[in-house]
Design brief:
three-stranded antiparallel β-sheet, 67% helix
Length: 464
């Protein structure tokens, strides 16, 4: 069982939850356990520096975690992504984008492993720590940037996670509205969001994760059933491919890129998954967990996106559940299943930014009455996600915006940057091919960031 969604900062393996973030100088790197007795990673001082894990995962276990960590609300938005890209353009570019994202994940893993060996830490560093350590051990003129880079990565991780929570509220409210409309209960979407917020608020005040984790298994089962039913519906009475746009207009393409990167952005997931494997060296092999898993995930994304756009064309919604036939018992059941799955996943996702940010805030501002102040902080944060969701109720545009702003930065910019710094530190030079390749990825990230953010915000403004 695993806490999911794209950021992958947090996960559950067996009964242990690991949250990787910064070290004691900023945000703490901690391991939360769901057992009555805490199980900690044991320090290993052997020459190979492999750390021990109390409950190591097998190849298949890790592969399943990777699937569940990458298949979420972004999957159901791929039909909208293909609409903004085109029926021919989108599958081709999705493959290329997937290869680039997986390559970036390999870069992050390699740099983390190098910093682990170099610093002789008791466990491999997380995403933010890896970036900070690369700069800290890099050229002299870059070392002073290490603290700022750590804060920057942590900020984007939190923004991504908060963005997911906002998307969840919009997603749930849209599906609830669709169901209510079928029974002639016509309410504004904002009212539905308020009704969604009411049960979420008290749940998000629960401080102990062990009371939330049972929801994860149920959410995974409901999501699997729902997605399977949506795919079945999407394959019925398909029109010819010629009836769809092959290449969308240039003004729409940034929306495609934003949504596609949102769906593929699981880079924060790869480090904790590898570090909990029984044989972590199997994670990055040519037929290792990462490559095999992401080929399957990418194939699912392309299949869902292609069928979704082919089936519903320009009417495809930000979630394929919104395109199901109204009044149909099966359709309504699917919408209820997936809505409940996302509703149960929200408090688990919400736990992640709290676990990253609260330790430092508690140390600085909550020496007295820490529990009460944490509850105030949780209340403010869940209220923030509700307000943002109310401000941007367009599901497809919201997903594209989150993907363009934070997912792009984490997946396409930081990994090639730290590889360049690592390589220059070790050899005092950067191979021409690596420099060209990494510069291309960084520029692609900047392009998606700038154009995707601009077009998403412009489209949101136009929608109002």
């Amino acid at each position: 069982m695993k806490i999911e969604e794209k950021s992958g900062i947090s996960h559950i393996s067996g009964s242990t939850v690991t949250i990787n973030d910064s070290d004691s100088r900023g945000f703490s790197s901690c391991q939360l356990t769901l057992e009555s007795k805490s199980s900690q990673m044991e320090e290993d001082n052997t020459d190979n520096h492999h750390h021990h894990v109390t409950h190591p995962t097998s190849y298949l276990d890790t592969l399943l975690h990777l699937f569940r960590g990458n298949i979420g609300s972004g999957l159901l938005a791929m039909g909208d992504a293909f609409k903004n890209g085109g029926i021919i353009f989108s599958p081709i570019i999705t493959v290329i984008l997937g290869v680039i994202c997986v390559h970036s994940q390999h870069l992050l893993l390699d740099c983390s492993e190098e910093m682990y060996r170099k610093t002789k830490r008791d466990r491999p560093p997380g995403f933010a720590d890896t970036v900070a350590l690369v700069f800290e051990h890099g050229p002299a003129r870059l070392r002073r940037m290490a603290p700022a880079m750590k804060v920057l990565v942590t900020t984007f991780l939190c923004v991504t996670q908060i963005g997911f929570c906002c998307v969840y509220i919009v997603f749930i409210a849209n599906n609830v509205k669709t169901i209510c409309d079928q029974y002639d209960i016509h309410l504004n979407l904002s009212i539905h969001m308020l009704f969604v917020f009411i049960p979420l608020f008290p749940i998000c005040l629960i401080r102990n994760l062990k009371y939330l984790t049972p929801f994860s298994t149920l959410a995974n089962v409901l999501m699997a059933l729902g997605v399977g039913a949506v795919l079945y519906e999407a394959t019925q009475d398909l029109p010819p491919v010629e009836s769809r746009v092959y290449l969308a207009s240039w003004s729409q393409l940034p929306l495609y890129f934003g949504t596609a990167v949102y769906a593929f952005e699981g880079i924060g997931l790869v480090l904790p998954l590898k570090n909990e494997m029984r044989n972590p060296e199997h994670f990055q092999r040519p037929l290792g967990v990462l490559n095999v898993g992401m080929v399957v995930v990418g194939s699912i994304f392309i299949t869902v996106g292609f069928l979704g756009y082919l089936k519903w064309g320009e009417n495809v919604a930000g979630s394929l559940t919104l395109n199901l036939k109204p009044g149909n018992v099966v359709s309504m059941t699917v919408q209820i299943l997936i809505t409940l799955a996302i509703l149960l996943t929200y408090p688990l996702q919400f736990y992640v930014p709290i676990a990253i940010t609260w330790p430092a805030l508690r140390k600085k501002y909550a020496q007295k009455s820490p529990v009460m102040k944490e509850l105030y902080y949780r209340s403010a944060l869940v209220l923030l996600t509700f307000v943002l969701a109310e401000l941007i109720p367009q599901l497809g545009l919201f997903i594209s915006l989150v993907g363009a702003v934070s997912s792009t930065t984490l997946a396409l910019m930081f990994p090639p940057i730290i590889q360049l710094v690592c390589t220059y530190t070790n050899t005092n030079k950067v191979p021409l091919l690596m420099a060209f390749k990494n510069t291309f990825i960084i520029l692609l990230g900047i392009f998606i960031f700038v154009t995707g953010t601009y077009v998403s915000i412009a489209s949101i403004a136009q929608a109002f």
